[in-house]
Amino acid sequence: MLDPTALRTFLTVVHTGGFSAAARQLDVGQSTVSGHIARLEKQVGRTLLRRDTHSVELTADGSVMAGFARSILDECDRALSYFTDDGITGRIRFGVSEDLVATGTPEILRRFRTDHPRVDIELTIGLSEDLHTSLRAGSLDLVLAKRNPGQRHGQLIFTEPLVWAGAPDTVLRPGDPIPLVTFPEPSISRTAALAALADAGLDHRITCVSNNQQGLRAAVLAGLGVMVHARRLLPADVVELDGLPDPGLTEVVVITRRRPATRAEAALLAVLRSATW
C-alpha cells in the first residue's frame, strides 16, 4: 500500500520545485523529504524525480504518479472528513444562475462536499429571475443569482460591471440595428441590454435566444450578434467590445428562504461568502 505521508511529500516537492522548499513547507528536515521520496520510488520500482543541484523535474513515471497521488490523497481526505466531520447532515436544494455555475461554483461545491460529506446537495441551474420565483414558491432552499442594483433581497457577494461582448472579429456597421444575442425573458442582462440601447436611441434586432450560456457563446462566436454579460463571467473566447452604451452593473447575491437557515445551509452560506470569485 502506498504511504499517504510519502505521497503528500512527493506532491509538495512537485509543487514547490525542490527538496529544500518542500522541507520548509512541511516543517521537516530535508533528509526526511529525501527519505520519503526514496521509499516511494523503491516501493513502485521507478524513478519519479530527476534532480540535480539546481532543479527537480518529474520523469514520465513521476507525472503519472502525481495524478495517482492526488486521487489517493483526495480519497483519504474524504474518508477522514466523513468520520471526523462536525455532524452536519441534511439536504440543500441549491439554485445557481446559469452564468455563475461555470466559474468558481464547481470548486466551491467540491470543497463543501469534502468538508460536509453527509450533506446532500440538489443543484438546479437556471435564469436568475426563474430561480427567485422557485425560491419564493418553496421549491429551493438557497439561491446564488444576480439582482439589479438598488434591489434589497439577498446577501451581496460581489458587484460586477455588465459589458457588451462578442467574437474577437465582431464588426458592427453604423446605422444598422444592433444584432442581439440574449437569454429569454425574464433575464437581467437582457433587460439591461434593451434599456441601454433604448436610452441611446439605437435600434436592435434579436438574432438568437438561448436559455444556456453555451448557446449564447456559440451564437456570438458564429457572428450572429453581440450580448450583454457580466465581465468576469464571460465565456471562453468571447471578448469585451467597445463603442456601445454602458449597460450598467449587476450584483451577485445569495438568497435564502424566509425562515432560519439550517446548519447545512449556514455552512454553505459561509463558504459562498468567503470564496474568491
TrEMBL record:
<feature type="domain" description="HTH lysR-type">
    <location>
        <begin position="2"/>
        <end position="59"/>
    </location>
</feature>
<dbReference type="InterPro" id="IPR000847">
    <property type="entry name" value="LysR_HTH_N"/>
</dbReference>
<dbReference type="GO" id="GO:0003677">
    <property type="term" value="F:DNA binding"/>
</dbReference>
<keyword id="KW-0805">Transcription regulation</keyword>
<dbReference type="InterPro" id="IPR036390">
    <property type="entry name" value="WH_DNA-bd_sf"/>
</dbReference>
<keyword id="KW-0804">Transcription</keyword>
<dbReference type="Pfam" id="PF00126">
    <property type="entry name" value="HTH_1"/>
</dbReference>
<dbReference type="GO" id="GO:0003700">
    <property type="term" value="F:DNA-binding transcription factor activity"/>
</dbReference>
<keyword id="KW-0238">DNA-binding</keyword>
<dbReference type="Pfam" id="PF03466">
    <property type="entry name" value="LysR_substrate"/>
</dbReference>
<dbReference type="InterPro" id="IPR050176">
    <property type="entry name" value="LTTR"/>
</dbReference>
<dbReference type="InterPro" id="IPR005119">
    <property type="entry name" value="LysR_subst-bd"/>
</dbReference>
<comment type="similarity">
    <text>Belongs to the LysR transcriptional regulatory family.</text>
</comment>
<protein>
    <submittedName>
        <fullName>LysR family transcriptional regulator</fullName>
    </submittedName>
</protein>
<dbReference type="InterPro" id="IPR036388">
    <property type="entry name" value="WH-like_DNA-bd_sf"/>
</dbReference>
